[in-house]
Design goal:
Number of strands: 0
Helix content: over 70%
Oligomer: single chain
Number of helices: 4
Largest sheet: none
């Protein structure tokens, strides 16, 4: 939400803010679609499907970076759990 408040240019939004605005705009744009085929396509996509796609796309950067940085996460967890 901070990205939406502080950043004025939509091209510079963080990934989660951009995905949220896409979902909001797609649900509000249903009434302005002129083409019948586009309207049928939008009706076929449920809100649940859009939210699932948003979660999947939002988690891709984390999933792609984690294997390379896994040893640092594990090392930090181990160091934090040891009492001296």
């Amino acid at each position: 939400f901070d990205g939406l408040i502080y950043i004025n240019d939509p091209k510079k939004y963080p990934l989660q803010t951009y995905l949220q605005t896409m979902v909001i705009q797609s649900t509000s744009a249903v009434g302005t679609i002129v083409n019948i085929k586009d309207l049928e396509m939008m009706e076929a996509i449920s809100d649940r499907t859009a939210k699932a796609a948003q979660i999947f796309i939002g988690s891709l950067p984390i999933i792609s970076v984690y294997p390379f940085l896994q040893r640092y996460f594990i090392k930090g967890i181990v160091l934090g759990s040891v009492k001296q």
